[in-house]
Design brief:
By secondary structure, the chain is of the alpha+beta class. Helix content is 45%, strand content 16%. The strands form five sheets. It has a seven-stranded mixed beta sheet with strand order 9-21-20-19-10-17-18, sandwiched between helices. Strands 11-16-15-14-13-12 form a six-stranded antiparallel beta sheet. Helix 2 runs parallel beside helix 5. The relative contact order is 0.12.
C-alpha cells in the first residue's frame, strides 16, 4: 500500500483497522448542510450509528492512546496524548448530550449536529491512529534487510567477495581488503590469516572458518535515548492549549453560571481545543523522513537521532572506508621512450583480463572505462603477492613488483627516480616489462586512492554548514597527509588510543557533540553525547543495533542526513502551525461568530497537513552533491 507516495509494509491487523478509522473522516466531510442537501440526509435518523462508531473507535481501537494518557496524567506529565483524549471525550460527551435532549421530530440541523460531534470525536483518535500505523509501516519498510551470516567453513572462489569475517584454513591468495591494515591496497593471506567481510579475493581459492560476529559494544543493547526538543515543544503547546480551553470554561461558568444550557458550550470548547490534525504533527514528518532515508540507503532505528544530528558541532571520519574508496585506482603511468601510455595500459589490461589479480583488476577497469580494445592473452601465470605474466601479441608481458620483474632479467634503473617520487607521495607502483625477445622495463603504473567519490564536496559542504571536520588517519603517512590537504579537511588525528582520546576531547570541548562516521570498529574516546554513523558494507553486520547506519559507500550521505534532520524540524513546526491555524479558522472562529455547523469543512485541515507532509521532503536529492571536484 502507498501513503503519501511511499510504499508501506502494513501489518494485516492494521489493514483491518484502516477502513474503520477512515469511516469517521469520510462522515465528517459529509456533515455539512449544503442548502438542505446533506449527503447524510437519508440516514440521519439513525443517530445511534455515529455514536456506536465513535465509542468503538475511541474506546476499543483508541484504547492504547487512552491508557498512555492516563499513565502520563498519573505521573503529572501533560502532553499531546492527554489533549487528544480530552478533545475526543468531550466531543463524544457532547454528541451523547445532544442525543439525550433530542426533541421528537427534530429537523436536519439538530441531527447533523449529533453526527458531526460524534464523528469529530472519533476522527481525532482516528487521525492519530492512522499516523501511528503509517509510522510503524514506514519503520518496517525503512529497515535494510541483512543477509544471514554463513556458519562453519566456506569456500571462496577467485574473484569473489568474502561475505563475512573469517580465518583462512586452506589456500593462499592476494585479496583487496578495504578494512585491512594497508587501506585499499591488496594484502597476501595464507593459512591462519584473518580476512574481513567485504574483501575481494584474488586468483587463489580460499577455505574460510567463519567467525562469529562479535562487533562493537554498541551492538549489545538499545540506542541511547535522547529527549527530542521538538517533542518537548509540541507537548508544551498542547499544555498551553489545554490551559486556554480550561480558562474559557472557567470564564463561562463564572459569567453565565452552571445551568444546564452551559454544558453544550463547555463541551464544545474542550472538543475544539484539540486540532483534528494534531495526531499527524509528529508522525507524518517522521514517515516522510524514513521514506527519504530509505531512498538514500540509510537505516534509522531511533528517530531521536534526528534531534542529535541537529546538535553536532563536528564530524569525525574513520580511517578506513569513509574518505578512501574500497578499491584501487590507476593514478598515472610512466613509460620509456617509444612506448605510449595507451599501449602500456592496453597490454597490462590484456594480461589482467585472464585472472583476478587486484592490481590488474584496477587496470582492467580503467581500460574498460576508456573503451580500449584488448588483445587476447594466453599462458597466464600468477605469483602470489609478486605479479603476473602472459603472452599478448606474441610477446610475454610481466606485471608486478620491482623484485618480480628484475628477477626475470629486466632493469628498472632508468625509471627509478620517477618511481621513488611516486612512492614518497604514498602511491603504490607496479612495473611492466617485456620478456621477449630481450627482457626490458617499458614503464610502471602508479596506483592509489586520492579520495572516495564525493569526499571533496562532502568536506566542503560540512564546512559551509559551520561544522568542523577531522579524519582518523596516520599523520606520518605521506599519502594521508596529501589526501587531507587535497580534501581541505580540518584536522588529522592519529589512531593511537591515548592521542585519539585527548584529541577527541579537545575537539568536543571546542565544537560540541561529535558525529563519528566509521566503517570499522568504533574508536576509543567517544562519550554518550556523541553520535555514531555506521558506514559501509561491514558495519551493518558489526552494529546491528546501532540507531543510524548506511551500507552505501558515499560520504555525501553525511551531508544529506544533517540536511534531512533540519528539514524534519521545519516540517514538524509547519504542520504544527497548520494544525492550530486550521483549528482557529474552521472551528473557534465560526463558533464565536454564532455558527452551529462550524465543523462541516474541518477536513480541510487534514488535506493541508497531508499535502504539506507529501511535498516538503520530496525535493530531497538522492545525494547532496552531484559531482566530485577531483
Amino acid at each position: 500500500m502507498r501513503w503519501q507516495g511511499m510504499k508501506l509494509d502494513i501489518a494485516p491487523a492494521d489493514m483491518l483497522r484502516m477502513p474503520v478509522l477512515l469511516a469517521p473522516l469520510l462522515l465528517l466531510a459529509m456533515t455539512g448542510n449544503w442548502w438542505g442537501l446533506s449527503p447524510l440526509k437519508p440516514i440521519l435518523k439513525f443517530v445511534w450509528a455515529p455514536l456506536a462508531l465513535a465509542v468503538f473507535v475511541q474506546l476499543v481501537l483508541g484504547l492504547p492512546i487512552y491508557l498512555r494518557a492516563l499513565g502520563k496524567l498519573v505521573r503529572l506529565r501533560i502532553d499531546t496524548d492527554l489533549l487528544l483524549v480530552v478533545g475526543a471525550t468531550a466531543a463524544l460527551a457532547l454528541a451523547s448530550w445532544r442525543f439525550q435532549h433530542l426533541a421528537y421530530g427534530a429537523g436536519t440541523e439538530q441531527l447533523l449536529l449529533i453526527w458531526r460531534d460524534a464523528v469529530f470525536g472519533a476522527s481525532i483518535i482516528a487521525v492519530a491512529l492512522l499516523g501511528e500505523i503509517a509510522l510503524r509501516s514506514a519503520q518496517r519498510s525503512a529497515l535494510v534487510p541483512l543477509k544471514p551470516t554463513p556458519k562453519g567453513r566456506i569456500v571462496i572462489a577467485p574473484g569473489d567477495f568474502i561475505p563475512c569475517d573469517g580465518i583462512v584454513r586452506d589456500g593462499a591468495s592476494e585479496v583487496q581488503d578495504p578494512a585491512g591494515a594497508d587501506d585499499v591496497f591488496p594484502i597476501v593471506v595464507k593459512a591462519g590469516t584473518r580476512v574481513n567481510a567485504g574483501a575481494r579475493n584474488g586468483d587463489g581459492v580460499l577455505t574460510l572458518e567463519v567467525l562469529e560476529q562479535v562487533g562493537s559494544p554498541l551492538a549489545h543493547g538499545k540506542p541511547r535515548p535522547m529527549r527530542d526538543g521538538l517533542v518537548s515543544f509540541v507537548n508544551w503547546a498542547a499544555r498551553i492549549m489545554l490551559v486556554i480551553a480550561l480558562a474559557i470554561v472557567i470564564w463561562r461558568l463564572w459569567r453565565y453560571g452552571t445551568d444546564g444550557d452551559m454544558m453544550v458550550p463547555i463541551l464544545h470548547t474542550l472538543a475544539l481545543a484539540t486540532p483534528l490534525g494534531l495526531g499527524l504533527v509528529m508522525t507524518a514528518p517522521a514517515s516522510e523522513v524514513l521514506g527519504a532515508a530509505r531512498h538514500l540507503g540509510v537505516e534509522i532505528r531511533d528517530l531521536a537521532v534526528l534531534h542529535r544530528l541537529r546538535q553536532i558541532g563536528a564530524v569525525v571520519m574513520g580511517h578506513r572506508g569513509v574518505l578512501m574508496p574500497d578499491r584501487l585506482r590507476v593514478i598515472s603511468a610512466q613509460c620509456v621512450d617509444g612506448v605510449t601510455g595507451t599501449d602500456l595500459m592496453r597490454r597490462v589490461a590484456a594480461v589482467a583480463q585472464v585472472g583476478h589479480d587486484p592490481w590488474g583488476m584496477a587496470v582492467l577497469e580503467f581500460a574498460v572505462g576508456y573503451r580500449m580494445r584488448l588483445r587476447p592473452a594466453t599462458s597466464y601465470h600468477y605469483v602470489l603477492g609478486q605479479g603476473m605474466s602472459a603472452w599478448v601479441d606474441r610477446q610475454e608481458i610481466a606485471v608486478g613488483t620491482k623484485r618480480f620483474v628484475e628477477g626475470r632479467g629486466a632493469n628498472c634503473a632508468p625509471l627509478d627516480p620517477a618511481a621513488s617520487l611516486a612512492l614518497s607521495q604514498g602511491r603504490r607502483v607496479r612495473w611492466v616489462a617485456e620478456m621477449t625477445p630481450t627482457p626490458r622495463v617499458i614503464g610502471f603504473i602508479v596506483f592509489g586512492a586520492p579520495s572516495a567519490n564525493g569526499a571533496v564536496e562532502t568536506v566542503k559542504n560540512l564546512t559551509r554548514l559551520g561544522l568542523q571536520t577531522a579524519w582518523l588517519a596516520r599523520p606520518d603517512d605521506a599519502a594521508h597527509v596529501a589526501l587531507a590537504k587535497h580534501l581541505k579537511i580540518g584536522k588529522v588525528f592519529s589512531e593511537k588510543p591515548e592521542e585519539l582520546i585527548k584529541n577527541l576531547a579537545s575537539l568536543r570541548k571546542k565544537a560540541g557533540p561529535l558525529l563519528i562516521v566509521t566503517a570499522d570498529v568504533v574508536p576509543d574516546g567517544i562519550v554518550a553525547s556523541d553520535l555514531i554513523l555506521a558506514f559501509g558494507r561491514r558495519i551493518m553486520e558489526q552494529l546491528p543495533s546501532s540507531a543510524l547506519a548506511t551500507t552505501r559507500h558515499d560520504p555525501r550521505i553525511i551531508v544529506d542526513l544533517i540536511r534531512l534532520a533540519a528539514r524534519h524540524r521545519q516540517l514538524v513546526l509547519t504542520n504544527f502551525v497548520i494544525a492550530f491555524a486550521a483549528a482557529a479558522l474552521f472551528a473557534f472562529l465560526p463558533q464565536f461568530v454564532g455558527s452551529r455547523t462550524d465543523l462541516g469543512s474541518y477536513e480541510v485541515a487534514i488535506v493541508l497537513l497531508l499535502a504539506t507532509s507529501s511535498l516538503s521532503l520530496r525535493a530531497m536529492p538522492t545525494t547532496a552533491n552531484e559531482v566530485d571536484e577531483e
